[in-house]
Amino acid sequence: MRWKKQGSWIALVALLAVITFGGWVANFSNASSPVGELDLYAKIQKNINLFGRVYQEVTRRYVKEIDPEKFLQAGIQGMLSTLDPYTVFMEKEAGEELQIMTRGKYGGVGMTISKREGWPTVIESPFPGTPAERAGIREGDRIIEVDGISTKDERISDTASRLRGKPGTTVIIKIMREGVSEPLEFHIVRAVIKIHDLSYSGIIKDGIGYIKLNRFSKNAGNEVREAVQDLKTKGLKAIILDLRSNPGGLLESAVKVANVFIPRGELIVSSKGRAEESNREYRAEEDPVAPDLPLVVLVNGNSASASEIVSGAIQDLDRGLVIGSTTFGKGLVQTVVALDRNSALRITTAKYYLPSGRLIQNPKRLYRRDTDIFLTESIVANDTTEIDTKKNYYTRDGRVVHGGGGIKPDIEVEPPKISNFEAALIRKSMFFNFAITYAAQLKEKPDSLVIDDKILSEFRQYLKDKKFDFELE
């Protein structure tokens, strides 16, 4: 009976797929679509029939029992692996992250976690005013259970998903804390947590304002605008916008951040794709709050996507100087298509172009690292990225810039190189773990902390106690 039901389910999936794609072909035919489009959808219909047949036969006849859902997902991943690495099938957890970025808020407790020695660990002080802060959660706390279920070796995304939930509901968290022998249990009521993209803003010296932006979620534009307005009341004379290691985020937020410094009506970025709706221009829609103040943007090799739109637009319009090392080179537009309640498809539909007309995308970023499969042959044949790296483009004041390889800074400053020993300390979280241990021993929190010989000596002893072993490779 189970196989009969499963066989019916498989046949139904295949039938619905055929009807759906067949309906598309009929609609295109009725709309007198170009012959090329009709041929495309005829091929889609033919191949979806073949895919459905293979899926059905293998699922029913293979020597070992196959999970139909996992098998279908493997087929989807196989298809997408022939494309660029940013076209992906997203399941529930990835969809949650995207919704959080888009909405700028979520239901949860308000803490940032990362994997440390197999356990999810709080790596920053909980956000001010959040349930986690009010409950007394601290940086360095190791989460060992969520609602009675162990978190050992659990994916961080799974732990984060279990910590989130509907505001007003309760989550039970059990933690281990440095200096406390027994686990601590917290019953925390979830609330609406607003995402903060700015980690710091302030006057650092002689009227020079410093703003550190970590991501581009829904709130980024307003946060930067409000930060600059606040700094202007404190004698702001120049601005440093730090986008180092900012992986990007929402296109609209990138435009709004750039608009803080760029006049209304100016072109900030445009997108060009295969479909007509992908061809758009994005211009500054508001009056800037700092149109004339000297501006420096800091970037590095981990500044990507929205970070490159902001830094590239500022460079092309000669609004400020870009300082650091060449950026990542991700200039592709993704469109998200919801498939059902628990999954979605993120598809690359266009490329970003800066005001000078140059392309951001680095051709090396189109490879899939796991398979080394490049884009489909037709796309590669029409790709102008390699040419773009050699062609001269010009900023508003006539300076030469190039595309196709990220944003090359006006002033290049290579990051300091670290030794293999230092890299091992970072990789094994020795600095972080020592800081947590050291802080737990302090009776009072100092206003400032200077790393002196005494602290260095304690750190060396800590490494010995932890049996930290380093061998040159």
Short description:
With 473 residues, the chain is an alpha+beta fold. Helices cover 36% and strands 22% of the residues.
Oligomer: single chain
Question: How much of the sequence is in beta strands?
Answer: 15-25%
Q: What name goes with the CATH superfamily of the largest domain? A: 2-enoyl-CoA Hydratase, Chain A, domain 1
Number of strands: 21
How many structural domains in the coordinates?
Answer: 4
The number of helices is: 14
Shape verdict: globular
Please state how the strands of the largest beta sheet are arranged side by side: 10-11-12-15-16-21
Q: Which class of secondary structure composition applies to the elements?
A: alpha+beta
What does this structure look like?
The N terminus is likely disordered. A hairpin with a 5-residue loop joins strand 19 and strand 20. The chain has a six-stranded mixed beta sheet with strand order 10-11-12-15-16-21, covered by helices on one side. Strands 1, 13, 14, 17 and 18 form a five-stranded antiparallel beta sheet that branches. Strands 6-5-7-8 form a four-stranded antiparallel beta sheet. It folds into four domains: 79 residues, no CATH class; 90 residues, Roll (Pdz3 Domain), CATH 2.30.42.10; 215 residues, 2-enoyl-CoA Hydratase, Chain A, domain 1, CATH 3.90.226.10; 46 residues, no CATH class. It has 14 helices and 21 strands. It is α+β, with helices and mostly antiparallel strands and 473 residues long. It is globular and about 75 Å long.
List the helices and strands and how they pair.
Layout: H1 2-30, H2 35-61, H3 68-80, E1 88-90, H4 92-103, E2 105-108, E3 113-116, E4 119-122, H5 131-135, E5 142-146, E6 149-150, H6 156-163, E7 170-176, E8 184-189, E9 191-194, E10 198-205, E11 208-213, H7 220-232, E12 238-242, H8 251-259, E13 267-273, E14 280-283, E15 295-299, H9 306-316, E16 321-324, E17 332-340, E18 343-353, H10 377-382, H11 385-388, E19 393-394, E20 400-401, E21 411-412, H12 420-427, H13 430-441, H14 453-465
Parallel strand pairs: 11-12, 12-15, 15-16, 16-21
Antiparallel strand pairs: 1-18, 2-9, 3-4, 5-6, 5-7, 7-8, 10-11, 13-14, 13-18, 17-18, 19-20
